[in-house]
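Ticket #4471: structure export looks truncated?
Reporter: QA, pipeline team
Priority: medium

Steps to reproduce: submit the single chain below to the structure queue and open the exported record.
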Amino acid sequence: MNIHFKFRGIATLVLVASLVTLAVCGCVSGSETSSKATTDTTTDTTTTTSTASEAYTQSGGTETSSNQAFTASNTDENGIKVTNGGTFILSNSTVTKTGDTSSNDNSDFYGLNAGVLAESGSAIELTNCTVTTNANGANGVFSTGSGSSVTLSNVTINTSAAGSRGVDATQTGNITCTDVNITTAGQHCAAIATDRGNGNITVTGGVMNTAGDGSPGIYSTGNITVSGSIITATGSEAAVIEGKNSISLTNVTISGEKKCGAMLYQSFSGDAEVGTSSFTMNGGSLNASVGPLFYITNTESIIELKDANLSAASGTLLTASADRWGNTGSNGGVVTFKAENETLTGNITCDNISSVTTILQNNTTLTGAINENNTASSMNLTLDSTSTWNVTGTSYLTSFADEDSTLDNLKDNGNTIYYDSNSSTNSWLEGKTYTLTDGGQLTPVTGSQ
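Actual output as written to the record:
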C-alpha cells in the first residue's frame, strides 16, 4: 500500500503532529512543500484525525480517516485517488480540486482530474464530507473499472467548470448515494452520470441542481436508479438515456427547462451500446418547460409510467423522429409507451421513419391528438376497459385495440379518428365507420388521406 500526503503552508504545530502520525505508519521523506509517507503493509486500520493538505493517494490496503482537508491544484491530479483494490473510509472532511485536465476524454472515461476517484477494484466511503471542484474536466466523484465502488452518505458536491459532473461511473464502476446534494454550473455537467463502458449508480434522497448547457439532471449510458430525490436542470433536459441503458425513478421530482423533459437516443459515439433504452417512472413528477415531455430519436425504447405527475408546457407529450444522429433515412425513433393510473395531457407526434405504440392501462386518461398530421410510419394505440382517450384533434392510427367494444371510452369531442382497415389488428372493426358520443367518427382511412 502506498499512501501519499503533501503538505503546504501548514502551521508548525499541525505539521509536527502530522509528522508524528506519519512516522507511526512508515517513514517521512522530502521537503515541507512536498512530502510523502509510504508503507508496504497491505492492511492498515489506522485512524488519522490530524489536518492534512494537498492530494491523497492510496494503493491497496485499508485506511480510515476523518477531519481532513485534501486539496489538489495540479493538472490531472485527483484530490483523493484509491487504486489496486484499496479501501479508504473518510468522514467529516473536505476535498477541493483546482487545475484543469489535459484530456477531456480521460476525465470523462477514467476519472482523470476528478475530486475523488476509485479505480481498479477499489472502494471509497465518504460520510459527512464536501467535495468541491473548480476546473475543466474535474468530475466531483468518480468510480471506474470492475469492482470499483464509491459510497456517499450526507455528502455535498459542487462543481463549477465545464465537463465536471457531480457523480460519474464508467467501465462497470459503482456509486451509491444517500442524502447527497449536488450542484453543477458548467457545460456538460450532469448531476448524476455514467459514461463509456457502462456504470451503475443508485441514489436515495438528496437535491440536485444543474445550470449549464448540455447538463441534464441525469445522463445514463449505464443503469441509474433514483428514489426520493429532487432534481432540477435549468440549462438542459431533465434526463437523457443513450443507447442500451436505463433510468428508473421512484417518487422523484425532476424537471428540465431546455430542449425537452426526457430524451432517449443513440449518438453512435461509442459511449453506449446499441439497443433498447428504458425509462421507468413510479410516482413523483416530471416537468418540461419547453419541447416534448419525451423525445425519442435514433434508438428503440420503452417508457413505463405509473402514478406520476407529468406536465409539458408545449402541449406535446411525446415525439419520435429523426434528428442529427445516425444515418439519414434509418435514424427515427421507435418507442413503446406504457402508462398505468396516469393523467396524460399532450399530443403524440411522429415522423415518417418513426413509430409509436401507446398502451393505456388501469384508469389512465390521455387528453390530446395522436398523429394529427398523419406523418407516422406506424402509430398504434391500445386501451383497456378502464382507460379513456379524450380526443382533442383529428387523429390517425395504424392499429387500434380497445377492450371496451362499445367505444364509450373514446371521448371524441366531435373529432375524427382514422384507422387502417388493412391492418389485421383492426379486423374487429370490420372496416366500418362508427359514430361516437359527441358526433365524431372512428372511420377507415382512405388512400387520399
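Status: closed, not a bug. The export was complete when the record was re-opened. Leaving a note from the reviewer for reference: Residues 32 and 313 are 59 Å apart (CA to CA).
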